[in-house]
Design goal:
Length: 384
């Protein structure tokens, strides 16, 4: 999709079309989650600190993210893809590889199928998609990137190598900024330069990745489209506006993140056997700890209990905390796992209460009901 989060928001804000828009929290230490192409023209990029983005584009309209909505639209996107072919390999919430070989007799040649996907996404969801069509995953990915926004580009198999050789070296997967600098020192600046370089020379500077990069430069990518991969983890994290050593604040944030993680687990129909804690300190050093439990869970209270245990297991912290995160790992489909009833009825009561919260949130919004510990003292709370 094109600027996915922004595109979803603009469906209800058509007055903002053509204007610089950023999705993200306006706090100084938050980051840009999505930016319209008008904002990108000023130098704003995804993952850029919001403080920098707002300096580069002071006229941008800032919209707070609504992750639940984005995941709902993502599910609708994947349903459209699945109506085209069974071979859909999601890459992220708004992007996937589709093997359409088996759909040609039914829907026409690949380019026609690409146009059909774009029309369907626009008609049913009101957002635009860019489609790359090629004989391999790697080249299709390049094509979709180079026809953005709202475009389609087909690269025939016979033209793959000439097309690749017209591109800069950083178009290749695995060639980031530092790798490009290393190659540039050897005079390798284009994909054609990589193809003309002996594999042994590339191995000397890139290690085992040298052979991989050389194969890509020749358009060789034999990987098949692998249908629907199970999401490996679900989680949430938060960067504090000011580094903190306050245990009470850390515990409260862990509870908030546990509720966000558990709600996503339940909406995805997943259970987790492992809970992971992430702490990033003031000097940007990061530690992680995890614990696997006997019974898979989707309850915020149970996730929170494990997260607190992991925090306490760290003992005295060397410095203030900049970021805290909670992740649910070792995921299983809830329908394929029998939930073992706890001997402690309170666990089941928590689960039932959180399921009730889900139903209220669906109707009135996610901030209608909150655990009392998450209410800010002295601040009036919004009602439904």
């Amino acid at each position: 999709m094109d600027a996915f989060f922004v595109s979803v928001e603009l469906r209800n804000r058509p007055d903002l079309r053509g204007k610089p828009v950023i999705v993200g929290f306006p706090a100084e230490r938050s980051v840009v989650l999505s930016a319209s192409y008008e904002a990108r023209a000023t130098g704003v990029k995804s993952a850029m600190p919001m403080s920098i983005a707002m300096r580069r584009c002071p006229s941008a309209v800032i919209i707070n993210p609504r992750h639940k909505l984005y995941y709902e639209v993502s599910a609708q996107i994947m349903e459209i893809f699945s109506s085209i072919t069974d071979l859909v390999e999601p890459l992220s919430v708004d992007e996937a590889f589709l093997d359409v070989g088996g759909a040609i007799r039914r829907l026409g040649p690949p380019l026609d199928i690409g146009h059909l996907i774009r029309r369907t996404v626009w008609k049913e969801l009101g957002i635009t998609a860019s489609v790359g069509v090629a004989a391999t995953k790697f080249v299709a990915k390049i094509a979709s990137t180079r026809c953005k926004p709202d475009g389609i580009l087909m690269i025939d198999a016979d033209h793959t190598v000439p097309y690749l050789h017209s591109l800069p070296v950083n178009a290749l997967w695995g060639v980031g900024g530092k790798t490009a600098e290393v190659l540039a020192r050897l005079g390798i600046r284009t994909v054609a330069d990589v193809a003309a370089t002996p594999v042994a020379s590339l191995r000397k500077v890139l290690g085992a990745g040298g052979e991989h990069v050389h194969r890509l430069s020749l358009g060789i990518d034999p990987r098949p489209v692998t249908a629907v991969r199970l999401e490996k983890s679900i989680g949430a994290e938060e960067t504090f506006s000011t580094d903190t050593a306050d245990d009470a604040l850390l515990h409260r944030e862990l509870l908030r993140l546990s509720h966000r993680t558990a709600a996503r687990l339940r909406s995805s129909g997943m259970l987790a056997r492992t809970v992971a804690l992430k702490l990033r300190f003031a000097d940007f050093s990061t530690v992680t700890r995890s614990k696997t439990v006997q019974t898979p869970m989707d309850s915020a209270q149970l996730i929170y209990q494990v997260a607190v245990q992991l925090l306490e297991s760290l003992g005295s912290r060397p410095m203030a905390v900049r970021l805290v995160g909670v992740r649910a790992e070792q995921l299983e489909h809830a329908g394929q796992t029998s939930l073992q009833l706890s001997l402690d009825r309170r666990d089941d009561n928590w689960r039932a209460a959180e399921q009730a919260l889900d139903r209220v949130a669906e109707r009135f919004g996610s901030k209608t009901l909150l655990p009392a510990r998450l209410l800010e003292p002295g601040k009036p709370q919004e009602g439904p």
